[in-house]
Write a structure and sequence with these properties.
By secondary structure, this protein is of the alpha+beta class. The chain has 17 helices and eleven strands.
Length: about 425
Amino acid sequence: MEYREFFERVKGFLEQAEIHKRRGNNDFNPYLEMWSESNEVKLHSALISGFLNPLGNHYQGDVFLETFLESVGLKAWFGNTRNARVYKEYKNIDVYITNGERHIIVENKIWAGDQDRQIERYIEIIAKEQSRDSSDIESSEIDSNDMESNELESSESETPQEQGASYDNIAVLYLAPDERNPSVYSLGKWEIQGEYLVNGDNKVRFKAITYKEEILAWIENSQAKVGCITSLNAALLFYKDVVQIITNTKENTMSIENFLTDNKDNNMQENMEIVFEILENKDKIIESYCEAIVEKCREQIESKDFEIVKTSKDKKMGRWNNDLSYPFMIKPKNCGKYYFAFCVEYYIQKEEYSCYGVRIFEQDSDSNMDDNIYSKIIEYLNVEEIWWLNYNQKDWWYYEFDTSITELESNLQAFLDSSNIKALNEKLKEYQA
């Protein structure tokens, strides 16, 4: 394949990708406008419990709960879901599911670490609660933090075993992006033995589940069951998108990577040969690109009383790091000893172009500018410390490197048009070190 044909195909792909974006193939997600994708409580636990709750405002009864129990393999064990209740942050349990007889503790971990005896505490709370003659769980949900504290205090002196509590009706699901088990730190007296957590003669069901497998499967199966109910489908679709982000499974069908490695037209080998050749010659290509931009703007540069200075890539200049050189520089023709110039940086040791922008230089000096002199210049100009100019900000300079080489031409143009640059260079003519 010829280079021209290759770039024509890439150009066509990028144009098509832009059309797709405008027509709805975008990365907008209302959940992520409100919370981070890793927010365990307000995003994930809230959404999961909201969908699972048979009394939820989705008005789908136990459809989502049944589908969830199928996905985690507990449907037969849990039994009746019609009268089930689902709670978020019940006594600090992320998601708690119960039908009065069976109890499921869901410990939700995105990136947060385990807490001391966390799972042990939750098991003891639910086991102890079973021993009470209470038919109204909701009444015990008031002030959950205080309740948990009271439960823990009493559990030290009176264990659930002594109260005749049953552990057989409890299951613990440990949910994380990828499969991992809770730490010994969190399990406390309990230890994992196959499909159970065991503490002496007592055991509860246990399973480590993942967003990548069980949650994605639950979302997809739920989508199939709600069918054409648009609002629920959209809600599930947006949540699926979040889950795919935290599990690194989100596929961008319009990505340049997919385009280059798509072998349906038997072009992948040719595509990759050209890509690897470009990568091998990246430095030379960027150098040629920078030179082409400078030459393209030559007439305008000279008409605005600037001049083009080209040096070898191994020539170090100015007050900056000795590993840097400036093979392309646009400086004022009639400048003082110190001046602002637009330059392209090159890292000598790394042998690669880095970035571009505006720096202060000293006329006819190959050595570093004394920091004391530099500070006095900044003070004289009555400006803040300057490294690079960023013309996309409200303020015309910005304390940051600009590494987007594709914006070189537009930023060079902004430099040439800047009245601030001209004013500062005129003021510097009068400066005496």
